[in-house]
Amino acid sequence: MAKIVKGGSFGGCVRYVMGKTDAKLLAADGVLLENKQSIIDSFEAQSLLNPRLSRKVGHISLNFSAQDSAKISDDFMLKIAGEYMQKMGIVDTQFIVVRHNDREHPHCHIVFNRVDNNGKTISDQNDRMRSVRACREITERHGLYISPGKENVNRQQLRDQDSIKYTIYDTIKAALPLCKNWGELERRLEREGITLTFKYSGGTDTKQGVIFGKDGFSFNGSKIDRAFSFSKLDAALNANVQRQETRTTQTVTRTFAPSPSPQPEHHQHSEPSHSHNSGDILSTAGSIFGGFNFDPGTGEDDNAPIPKKKKKKPEQKKGRSMS
Asked: pTM of the entire structure?
């Protein structure tokens, strides 16, 4: 699973990924590796080829399941990172790939310049949807573990923003089946300290989005879960109303249905009766997401030399990209 972040300054990003005591540089291309500051300066210099691009920093964390820890060697992790970058179109540009070991699950960080070597912009159009597809394809190709959903996420390991996001998710999931309209949902969430506000289509009363907030954090509904966008929640609330009306109608019908008239008994040539019962099939689907928080660096010396490590680059399919 991948978490994508974009920003305007390479300094904080590079200091974070390189500043961890357990950080291990797996690969780099197009940057000077004398120290953290030389990496930052290299990124910044190339970004001047396209000064109009404000969000020039690409930062992606690739997260693997703890169940696959034994499989995730440095070489294998780098191979996966290369395949992911190829699928995402992150080619012909500067990058570093850094592994961290500060969590239970294996993960690495890819920092790349969205201004490529020719001054062109690496597109971020639909990057999150493309990322989900790329992760799924790579995971299935290599037989890696696929999480069945949020229910199996270890809440105790979550921090700050991610912890709040999962709290909101759990609360909405529990409250939604009990609500028939937005007002009821809002009141139930308020009891748990969660706010609900709407986004409106420019200058109109037409609702087009929903935002949930708690403890100073706020998230669009779709960022909590794709099933929690305004349109999908609205459809779920309407479905709750329909189910309630159907149950009420069925109850009334059974209560006031006329009793069948007695039929004369026939002792001869009676035909056997046949009855057919049908059942309803309910199918459900879930979605997966995860989060990963990034904090600013600790103020370490950016000019300190980077420990000499064997440099590795992903296999290249074209240009200076990895495969």
From this structure: 0.54
